[in-house]
């Protein structure tokens, strides 16, 4: 969650919150939150179902199935809890897609900053072994 927060902070710093990147990060944000919340009671299941609206049912179930506790004080998510989530989300109309659409492309513009050095004044050291480069 900390790393995702750092990405959100970077978006804010660069004034990119309205670029669509935040919406693309939303499933990742919700997956991080899903890993942090309690996963035991019916109230927990209800909270997860309402919180994870950017994740599909398949994604929620996959995260819960693959969740591995980091210490002995936590335990794996019970199969009965995962079934409760599936029942609650059964009427949700979402894509069976498990992963994010990798074909989605964001336009990125980099400003051109010309160098103050003229290209013909640059000397390439022989120690770099780039003798095959010649000036034209």
Automatic annotation (TrEMBL):
Name of this chain's protein: MYO5A protein
Provenance organism: Todus mexicanus
Molecular function in Gene Ontology: GTPase binding
Residue span(s) of domain Dilute: 1-91
Superkingdom classification of source: Eukaryota
Originating gene: Myo5a_0
Family annotation (PROSITE patterns): DILUTE (PS51126)
